[in-house]
Amino acid sequence: MNKKIFAANWKLNKTPDQAAAFAQDFLAKTSEKFFETKEAFIFPQNFSLDKLSQNLKKSPVRFGPQQIHIEVKGAFTGENSLAIAQSIGSTICLIGHSERRQIFSELNSSINKKVLLSQSLDTLPVLCIGESLEQRQKNETLKVCFEQLEAALSAVNLSKRIVVAYEPVWAIGTGQVASLDQVKEVHAELFQKMTSMNFKNFQLIYGGSVKADNAKDLIALDHVDGFLIGGASLEVTSFLDICNFDS
Ligand code: PGA
What we know:
Blueprint: E1 4-9, H1 16-28, H2 32-37, E2 38-43, H3 49-56, E3 62-63, H4 82-87, E4 92-95, H5 98-103, H6 108-120, E5 124-129, H7 133-137, H8 141-152, E6 162-166, H9 180-196, E7 202-207, H10 212-219, E8 226-229, H11 236-243
Helix pairs in contact: 1-3, 8-9, 10-11
The chain binds 2-phosphoglycolic acid.
2-phosphoglycolic acid is lined by residues 9, 167, 172-173, 207-210, 228-232.
């Protein structure tokens, strides 16, 4: 059975020192047993990657950037290189988060290039997809998710591991978590879709206002292999309360 994934998306929060303190506290409060059944991922703001690397490189906790450029080097002022992140120990990267799509106008076509790049560098991509409130109200949830999935995963290597995070945009940072029926339905459909696209090694995680009090019911659903967590991942206690859904 796959390990459950607990991915922290810190967004534009935490100084390098705060990131280091989080890492130390998190490791102090987890044991080898924790990592037998669970994986922990952290997506910090880029300035904290190096400090996280210093604190986590001997641990099973994986970390990586929240956003990458489609090229690894060159004249691209202000961009982030996955190869440089990798040189300081990053083994994962977040791709296509709805804030990137909405605020920074990221398109499916560049998201696809980023997935391809991450695969070529043997970095695990965590690809985000999800519908807006308007799209849900128009009954377009599955159409939108499938379109995002097909575009982002065009021509990718089907045998390489990939994590897909289903994050309904209306549930992100709003406190309005999707209902169990909504998550169950979309995850079942996404599982079918990924299987029909011939993916061999994928996990589906849910994101959007995940907290300790809804984590247990959500993770009990079929095809929910973990969570992408924003607000509740900023404190070790609230993050661990979610990870320890089974204790
Ligand atoms: P949230 O964010 O948990 O604060 O809703 C989730 C995300 O943006 O990945």
